[in-house]
Hints:
Radius of gyration: 26 Å
Helix content: 25-40%
Strand order of the largest sheet: 2-3-5
Shape: flat
Number of strands: 5
Structural class: alpha+beta
CATH topology of the largest domain: Alpha-Beta Plaits
Number of domains: 2
CATH class of the largest domain: Alpha Beta
Distance between the termini: 67 Å
Strand content: 5-15%
Number of helices: 8
Amino acid sequence: MGTIRVINVSERRRVLTFWERIYLLEVYRGLALTSRHFFVNLWRHTLRLVGIKSAPPGAATFQYPEVRRPQSPRLRTLHRLTKRPDGTPRCVACMMCETVCPAFCIKIVAEEVDDPSIEKRPKSFDIDIGRCVFCGFCVEACPEDAIRMDTGITEIGALSREGMILNMDTLLSLPPKTERGDKPVDFLQQQLVQ
């Protein structure tokens, strides 16, 4: 049987040198790095300004909100619930998404249904977007493909905490980005209308 050795915290720490303790060298290194980035980008932008297009482009800032940053197709955006062909939610209230959520932002209340092909359905399905960390675990855990994060809506805001809670009607009404195209969605206005 092996022995367990307890390591004292002071044994793991390296003793700082004189220059590391007064931080002058470290401050200088930080300033040098920032200055290098500044002057390299300034030189690249200047070369492109005078017409030398073969120069590598400098770092650029997106002029938001007029110019939007390109989004990856895999980007996890605002949630939506999918529907069956008859218009009912695909969710069967299995509680998998609520169970796997690390932020505990999904609340589902189930009710039984007379349909023999579906054991139960959600009576209410609420997501608190203010607590959500957009990890996508709910989408991965759903066995019915009832919840997705493909709306393309990244600008989410409300005037109160209660406004950040999305109910089942709101989640069912959100279209995927492919159906909406590039039309912007005013999420705050949509919440205030309801």
